[in-house]
Amino acid sequence: MTQAVLLGFAAVLALPASHAATPLYNGYTIITERPVALDLRQVVYQRVQGQSILEGFLTLLAGTGWRLAERAAADPEIDRLYEQPYPESQRDIGPSELGTVLERLAGPAWQLVEDPVNRRVSFERRWPYRPAVVEGERLENR
Fold it and tell me: Can you give the residue ranges of every domain in the chain?
């Protein structure tokens, strides 16, 4: 009998927390929501109408709490990215994480750079796509 009681007690202790009783407050169930992601991991659903990558970025960032960094703080060649036509295959976005969408639109030549303090994003060219420097002269890779 004692063994049966101990086994029953051990089984109760082994139950996971998900089987615990729902917390009640004055007869009402307390529902706790998962926190909303405010970083670049937040999920976005958008229909993008813009004609350029810049217009697409502005549409995607609207309402997220994030902005594009000022051009003076970005890669000197950022306009090469911003002026690219927006890809038709990427008009309907989501559900996808914001950072993933921005990186996909920028393409493999551009690295997403985030400033979480000021909640700004920008892009810089990855090393293989930067201009080469030969004996003090800059060679453009155009």
Answer: 43-134
